Amino acid sequence: MRRASASRPGGGVPRPGERRGGVRRVVVVMPSAFTLGNLFFGFWAVVSATNQNFRLAGWFIVFAAILDMLDGRIARMSNTGTRFGAELDSLVDVISFGVAPALLMYFLEFTAAGRFAWVLCYIYVVAVALRLARYNVASHGLPPSNWFNGLPSPAAGLTLATYYPFSQTEWYRATLPYLLDLQHQGLVILMLLVALLMVSSVKYPKVPPLGFRNLKGIIGTIFTVALLIGGIVAPEYVLFPFAIFYIAFGLLRAVLLALTDQRGETRPAYAGHAADADADVELDADQLSDEPAASPRPAIHPERRSRFGERRRPESDA
């Protein structure tokens, strides 16, 4: 006697389509699970910053950024991206890369900076919210691009989150304070800069694709592996300088493109002036010539020619 299967209410064997449907539901839920993990670490970073544990708060924001990158990759690879997941991801990013880094900076440097020092942190959070809202509207229904329009909010959050671990290294204490002191006024400039770049139109490259089929995939794989190894072995020395390099790359690229565009616009203008000058010279030469210009003869219609010929025939016969 066959035993009745407990997988269905009637005791029958589940169909293959039903099994695939269950697997499909699990795959759809996975990106949202990574997004909620992102929210978990973002909220934990807020709690740690409130308790003056700034190092852990910074690393929790880094963990949130890793999960934020993974949920998008999983959604694209499994083709399970939904409008719900995109909206949930944006709401979570406001907390993990907006509120959490802002509170980290506030409790770290700005609690004793004055009564309205919190306004600076509020401006940063507003920039993150505007950045994410613009991204959702601009990217809806458009094919994916290799560039971000403005500094992405995870990069801005990582820059602020990794500052404190980097400031505790021996290298920073021995060299950088003499060249660039990021405390107090330096952090004010840094927060305003990343807030401005998030709502700007400066292009920033996305994470390169991974693979070994073409040169682009190989370079992306080597770059990602090198950054991952550096982030694991010596995260205090690697992550914050890399974030500063990423911000500077977009700024320098935008400046160079603006300069080349201005040069390209000025060259046709000079060419146009030269053409006008040549036309003026030709016009003056025509005006100064002694011989009068021959006026064009008026065209005679064929019908008029035939009538004129008929009128002259009788005269010739007479």
Care to give the gist of this entry?
This protein has helices at residues 16-50, 54-78, 83-110, 118-139, 153-161, 163-167, 170-174, 176-179, 185-198, 215-233, 235-288, 302-317; strands spanning 147-149, 203-205.
Low-pLDDT stretches are: 1-7, 269-295, 305-318
Task: Supply the CATH superfamily name of the domain at 21-204.
Answer: CDP-alcohol phosphotransferase transmembrane (TM) domain
CATH class of the domain at 21-204: Mainly Alpha
Radius of gyration, whole Å: 35 Å
Roughly what is the average pLDDT, rounded to an integer?
77
Q: How much helix, percentage-wise, in residues? A: over 70%
CATH architecture title of the domain at 21-204? Up-down Bundle
Describe the structure.
With 318 residues, this protein is an all-alpha fold. The protein has a domain at 21-204: Four Helix Bundle (Hemerythrin (Met), subunit A) (Up-down Bundle). 74% of the residues lie in helices and 2% in strands. It has twelve helices and two strands; from the N terminus they run ααααβαααααβααα. It has helices at residues 16-50, 54-78, 83-110, 118-139, 153-161, 163-167, 170-174, 176-179, 185-198, 215-233, 235-288, 302-317; strands spanning 147-149, 203-205. Strands 1-2 form a two-stranded antiparallel ribbon. α1 packs parallel to α3.
